[in-house]
Amino acid sequence: MAPGEATGSGFRARAGALTLMFVGGSLDREDLLAMLERALSGGLLGAEDYEDLAGPEFDYDEDEEELDLEEEELEDEDEAEHDPIGPQTKMTTSSKGEEFLFVAHAMRRWLGNCPSGPLELGPEGGDPLSALVCCWSATVTHALAPEPLTLEELNRAVGILDSDIVEEHLEAMVRSGLAEARADPGEPRYALTGWGREGIAPIVAAVRYECHYPEPDVLPPDVFDAEAAFQMALPLLRLPPRLRGSCRLGVVIPGEEPLVAGATVEVDRGAVLAASPLLDREPETWATGSPLDWCETVVDPSTARLEVGGDVELAEALLAALHEKLFGSPRP
Question: For the whole model, what pTM was predicted?
Answer without folding.
Answer: 0.84
